[in-house]
Amino acid sequence: MRRPYSSMLLGGVMMMMTAITPSLLQAQAAAAASPRGALEVAFTYNATLADAVTGNSFWMQGVGAQIHGQFLGGLGMVADIAGAHQSNINSSGVGLDLVTATFGPRYTWTRPHQRYGLYAQALAGTAIGFNGIFPAPRGANTTSLGLAVKAGGGLNLTLSPHVVLRAFEADYLRTQLPNSTTNVQNNITLGAGIALRFH
């Protein structure tokens, strides 16, 4: 009599495990794609298409670092520091180094059981230009400080619970530094990199 009961018990446990395992895997995938309460630190390579006073645009190369905390559904806050460099703008012999430090909200949208997340953000902060030429009332300065506004978004692909691929990020970057005309620069920044996620 013991063998039939043991077989029935074993069969019942096997059926329960078969039913529960897919649900656990789906929940794990959803948790990986929707990191509510997670902290992410991202490192990116950036290319910035900047405009010049003459109307001729030029490319700057650089890197960035972001800290992002998601705390309410898809809503979170991000701090972004990025630097870009161009040693010879349009063969003029004049270079430019630009550092921006911005902060603001980011909303991340993820589908259940998917490993990708789309996000949009709107950040504001400070732009510092140096090793360049910035017109001033009495000649020109090599360094200037102004407003920076960044708006855009990107795509994250979760590789593991702690590693995320920043497939791309595209942002409109507006800086306000002296340029003898409007004192405004309209830039486009494209980036990609890797992020580390801490739960």
Question: Could you please describe the fold and organization of this structure?
Answer:
It is a single chain. By secondary structure, the protein is of the alpha+beta class. The protein has one domain: Beta Barrel (Porin), CATH 2.40.160.20. Helix content is 16%, strand content 62%. The protein has one helix and eight strands, in the order H-E-E-E-E-E-E-E-E. Strand 6 (139-160) and strand 7 form a beta hairpin.
* Model regions low in confidence, pLDDT < 50 over at least 5 residues: 19-34
DSSP strand tally: 8
Strand content: over 45%
Average pLDDT level: 86
Order of helices and strands: HEEEEEEEE
Give the arrangement of secondary structure elements.
Blueprint: H1 2-33, E1 39-50, E2 58-72, E3 75-86, E4 96-110, E5 116-136, E6 139-160, E7 163-175, E8 185-198
Antiparallel strand pairs: 1-2, 1-8, 2-3, 3-4, 4-5, 5-6, 6-7, 7-8
